[in-house]
Specification:
single chain, 9% helix, little secondary structure, two-stranded antiparallel ribbon
């Protein structure tokens, strides 16, 4: 009976495999452009998220007396 998982091309081979060209991982993108900022539509009325302030204008109008 033959082992169905046996694949002779997976093991050591007498013919060495040619290696592909190595990719350079040290390159840094210097010309990256951030996408334009979008209008905030979340549930925060007035708060600071990270380094940016976030506020939902429709919530500010609705809760103007409570804020």
């Amino acid at each position: 009976m033959v082992n169905p998982r046996y694949k002779p091309f997976n093991g050591n081979s007498r013919n060495p495999v040619k290696q592909k060209a190595e990719k350079k991982l040290s390159e840094t993108k210097t010309d990256f452009v951030f996408p334009p900022k979008e209008k905030y539509i979340g549930s925060h009325i007035k708060s600071k998220l990270g380094d940016e302030y976030a506020s939902n204008e429709s919530y500010e109008k609705y809760y103007k007396d409570l804020v």
